[in-house]
Automatic annotation (TrEMBL):
Annotated Gene Ontology cellular component terms: cytoplasm
Keywords assigned by UniProt, alphabetized: Isomerase
Signal sequence annotation: none
UniProt catalytic activity: aldehydo-D-ribose 5-phosphate = D-ribulose 5-phosphate
Protein family according to the UniProt entry: Belongs to the ribose 5-phosphate isomerase family.
Pathway note: Carbohydrate degradation; pentose phosphate pathway; D-ribose 5-phosphate from D-ribulose 5-phosphate (non-oxidative stage): step 1/1
EC number(s) stated in the UniProt entry for this protein: 5.3.1.6
Protein name as annotated: Ribose-5-phosphate isomerase
Amino acid sequence: MSTAADQAKLVETSKRLAAFQAVKDYLLPEYTRIGIGSGSTVVYVVEAIAALGPAATAKMAFYPTGSQSEELIEAAGLHLQYINKLPAAQQLDVAFDGADEVDDDLNLIKGGGACLWQEKIVATSARQFVCVADFRKLSARLGTSWTKGIPIEVLPMAAPRVLGELERMGSLGPRIRPGLPGKAGAIVTDNGLWIIDAPFAPLQLSRDSASTRSNGTWTVDALADSLIKIPGVAEIGLFYGNNGLEVASGAQKPVAAYFGMADGTVQVKTPAAV
Ligand SMILES: O=C(CO)[C@H](O)[C@H](O)COP(=O)(O)O
């Protein structure tokens, strides 16, 4: 009989498998600039990189997406650098990050850890953005298994008006994310902003429908394009692509998504294969 502890162990093993495989496939020895995302799966990405040893990583600089990954990089003895020091003409060679849900077209929900704005900047600063996750994150359509809502980073003074607009758009009970247990008030991001979690009915892929919204159901692209235009919204936790950059450098969508599976294998999804 499988206990909750067994399940938790399986999830951790799956995350680790995905992370080690992604690093093996995408961290080439000649790379010098690497983005490191946030969350519990990325911990294993850093473990895999550190396991390569100082000789392999000596010339590499690591760019975090927030305070958590900054600490991870430093604790692993890797060279920390900041994205605001990256000249506009340069790109990261690769960036690794987790996701809360991944759909059939490699659109992502991110921001479960409240780092989505910096995560999007780092991912789109990379020639190759690689997603690492466990089997629970694999979904045909966003909003199927991750039902807490799409994380949206907002200016605190605009939060009530953003909530109203989200309801008008059909969000089912959007709410301001509370702080950690024992802490009163809203969670505050690394940018001093708040997060609203906005649940929507599972989102269609653009190829599902000619219409951007039918029967109250949005396509990922149409919803994302509308959310980002709400005054007071700083950034949204949909990583998507409708701009022709889906598989190119600077895209929000990953070039590959690695999933550690419950059977001990790693499933790799790439744009060509979806
Ligand atoms: O977007 C994120 C943080 O803002 C994380 O990448 C996402 O929440 C996945 O986290 P985990 O690897 O812990 O499941």
